[in-house]
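C-alpha cells please, single chain.
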Amino acid sequence: MKSFKNRSYVLTVNISTVIKAGFICILTFIIMFSLSGIISSLKPGYQVNSTIIHKATKNISSKLLFQFLAADTQMINASISSREKPPSIFTILLNSATNISFKDPRSFLGRELPGFTFFDI
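Here you go.
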C-alpha cells in the first residue's frame, strides 16, 4: 500500500483587494443599469433608433469597417491582401469627426465656397 501524505495548501487573500474588487463590480453594475434606464426613459425625440445610428455611420466607409473587424478576427484578417495597410487611428478619428479627407481637397473647401458642392459626383 502506498503511504498517504497529508498535503495542505495555504491560500492567502488580502481582504482589502477583495473589498475593492467587490466595490468596483457593484459600482459597474449600478452605472450600467442607470445608463440603460436613462436611455430607455428618454423622450421619443432623443431616444437612440436606427435613423440616428444610420446618420452617425453614414460617413464611415465599408472598407474602414471591414478593416476594423479584421483587427479583431483572424479569419477576416487573412482575407485582406497584405498590400493594403490599415489606416491610422488619427485618420479614422479625423474622418469620422470632421468628414475631412486628405486625399480629396474638395472636403476642405466644399462648404466654404458657394456653389462648389454642386461639382460633387
